[in-house]
Amino acid sequence: MGLNNTVSAERIHIGFFGMRNAGKSSLVNAVTGQELAVVSDVKGTTTDPVKKAMELLPLGPVVIIDTPGIDDEGELGELRIKKAKQALAQTDIAILVVDSQVGLSEKDNDLIAEFKERKTPYIIAYNKSDLSDVVTDDNSVSVSAKDKININELKEKIASLSRNAKTEKHIVADLLQKGDTVVLVIPIDESAPKGRLILPQQQTIRELLESGCTAVCCRDTELAQTLDSLAKKPSLVITDSQAFGKVSKEVPEDIPLTSFSILFARYKGDLAKLVEGASMLSKIKDGDKILIAEGCTHHRQCNDIGTVKMPRWIESFSNAKPEFSFTSGTEFPDNPEEFSLIVHCGGCMLNEKEMQSRIGRAIANGVPIVNYGIAIAHMNGILKRSVEIFPDILKILN
């Protein structure tokens, strides 16, 4: 996959934060060499986080996030600050932009404390250095967005942090050997996007090919025929979660089986915590509040998995009538303690930082959380089988 084709969820997310008129937007434009953000002397020009996927040398593929000022005022200002904090949940590297003539404010120090709490690497960029000198250290740099002073130094510091921000992770390649055959079950129904595969399917196929494995794709309706046609047993079958029940009946017990959703729970979330959360599905009672959360916004169809299928499956499995709430996109509660369970999508459009932030918020509030694939496997009685390829996770269920 070329740099220009790297999906946003796989890019380093660099967020620019700070007070109004510290020069965040001017610095974003100076760092990127583009007019990505509107610049004005009027406080509060940036009213919503602005995101842009791009190539930034010497870093490579990144997502730049310009945020509203953390000192915004009034009722609308509070909403803007909330949006800035939401952007922090998906930020891999934070740039705190400070007006060098003003220095660090109390709100800036609060942000630094939040960076540390979230374990988000950060750099303090003292802007407007053409107007005032500032003593810096290894964690800060004196810059001028206006005169382009020390912009390259700031980029080098960001690049240095980025090398440590992402660890080498695999979707499935570490579970296989070169030359293995893997069958991917991809239903084509009303929920499948026209003319393309969804992101987890694309990424899994690409990784299999890069690892020297053979990827055999079929619909659930042709699975039995596909398995019969193979000269040797596949090393693994990966299915779309919605077809889990049907697929598990057709795949022989001696062939490992899992789902895209379970693989991505390990890839960018916390598979152990999500598997633990599945047990709550067996304890649901009438009136329990359940949040069904999705990381993207999309056109909801008449048989939508999040708002239609999942509630129906949960009610049927639990034989109870819980209360369902729904969120999508960037909306996710900071303090979800009112819920008995959170059921999250696979998170393919979220980066690792945000997915782990959401899981962390749930756990911190004592709320079990599970994702679609794990929930569906549990409700079909095949969760243990679907995680057999992860011995450490299997221990949780024994």
Structural summary, described in words:
The protein has helices spanning 24-32, 74-88, 106-117, 151-165, 199-210, 223-229, 244-250, 260-268, 271-278, 305-318, 352-364, 372-379, 383-386, 391-397; strands at 12-18, 50-56, 60-66, 93-99, 122-127, 140-142, 181-185, 214-218, 236-239, 257-259, 289-293, 323-327, 341-344, 369-371. By secondary structure, it is α/β, with parallel strands linked by helices. It has three domains: 3-165, P-loop containing nucleotide triphosphate hydrolases (Rossmann fold, 3-Layer(aba) Sandwich), CATH 3.40.50.300; 173-263, Rossmann fold (3-Layer(aba) Sandwich); 270-379, Rossmann fold. Strands 2-3-1-4-5-6 form a six-stranded mixed sheet, with helices on both faces. Strands 8-7-9-10 form a four-stranded parallel sheet, with helices on both faces. It is globular and about 75 Å long. The two termini are 39 Å apart. Residues 40-46 have low confidence and may be disordered.
Briefly, what is this?
This protein is an alpha/beta fold and 398 residues long.
- Give the overall form: globular
Termini separation comes to 39 Å
Element string (H = helix, E = strand): EHEEHEHEEHEHEHEHEHHEHEEHEHHH
Would you tell me which CATH topology of the largest domain applies? Rossmann fold
- Tell me the strand order in the biggest sheet: 2-3-1-4-5-6
Question: Can you give the helix content as a percent range?
Answer: 25-40%
Q: What's the name of the CATH homologous superfamily of the largest domain?
A: P-loop containing nucleotide triphosphate hydrolases
Tally of alpha and pi helices: 14
Number of strands: 14
Which architecture of the largest domain does the CATH hierarchy give at level 2? 3-Layer(aba) Sandwich
* Rg, alpha carbons: 23 Å
The total number of structural domains is: 3
Q: What class would the helix/strand composition place it in?
A: alpha/beta
- What is the residue-averaged pLDDT? 89
Which residue ranges are poorly predicted, with pLDDT under 50 across at least 5 consecutive positions? Answer: 40-46
Strand content is 15-25%
What is the CATH class of the largest domain? Answer: Alpha Beta
State the major sheet.
Answer: 6 strands, mixed
